[in-house]
Design a protein that fits this description.
Elements (H helix, E strand, L loop, with lengths): L13 H46 L13 H6 L66 E3 L5 E3 L12 H13 L4 H10 L6 H9 L2 H17 L11 E2 L2 E2 L7 H15 L7 H12 L1 H4 L13 H6 L1 H10 L5 H19 L4 H8 L10 H9 L1
Antiparallel strand pairs: 1-2, 3-4
Helix pairs in contact: 3-13, 6-12, 6-14, 7-8
Length: about 375
Amino acid sequence: MAARIPDSLDRLSHDDLIGVVRDLIHGVTRLGAENEKLGGALGKLRIEHQAIKDELARLKHLPPRPPIKRSGMDKATDAKGPEGGGEKGGGSTQGRGGQLDKLTIGATVVVTAKAPTGSRHKGYKDIVVQDLSLKPTVTRYRRERRETPDGRMILGELDRGIVGGYGPHLHRLVLALHFSGQVTCERIVALLNGMGVAISKRQVVRLLTAKLETFRAEDEAVLKAGLSGADVTVDDTGARHAGKSGYKLAPNLEQAQILRARFDRIFKRARTGYARLDSLLKRLHRHKDELLRVLERPEIPLGANASENDIRAFVTKRKISGGTVSEKGRDARDVMLGLAKTCMTLELSFYDFIGDRLATPGPKIPHLANLVRHDHA
């Protein structure tokens, strides 16, 4: 039996204090082992309990439990602290995946540490900072005038990217904000005026419809390339075949005839004994050609999900800024939203695409129609 510990530890000798601490460590260790054992038993009980619930759901013909992935918030919580990059103001680049690999470092700045005398240099801790500078620039172009011997006046040609007193970079920003960012003309005017650009709503609308023929020609070429390409046939119903979801096979002639015969046998029967059902079967049989067209064109999707997704940008723009007023505005909307959707499908930057077509410095984007043909090849 352990000796009784006095009320005050001050009365204990040094050896007695060591004994008390050893007893406490032993007790904490024992409690930790018991807690771990109880935790394991509880985990097993939870698994057995969930198995019983799943079996009951199966017997009652209930839908199975959906798979639930572990939240990424746990990892973020565990990474707090100086070694995890969670210190205030550190701005660590950890946890960004491969995003930094896509960046090009334009400048390197060495920040010296304010350390006391005698401190040793231990290398550097790098942090990549991205920033964006938007400031207006005003340039005066002095176009030389020359008079030819026959009396004609010749002016120096401006850069082809200048439209109505505005340069290609501003033109590019307006197009990206309106068609990709779904920003209204009024808000674009307010944003640019606040940045020091003298521009009106009328001039913004003019920029939105400028150089439309160039974009329209490319949009029409993309449409032709898409229609002539070999489409990937996707089953929107999510049916599975050969262990894969979403793919259909074109039936051969014999299989198509069998399916047509089955259709006639089901929908062409004389009487079922129910007047409403007989009427419905006759109505469906009248649309036999439309319903079985998929046998001739297996690329036709069984649902409208893809089409609805393609026009979602038009619906969003209509909700934000209403409909267009002029024919030119309607053409600009249709052409630019179509090109933006094509760039998204091809995993291209719509901003880079606009910049290349407006002859601004930056990445070169090939003709979209050629990319569509290559993607379908």
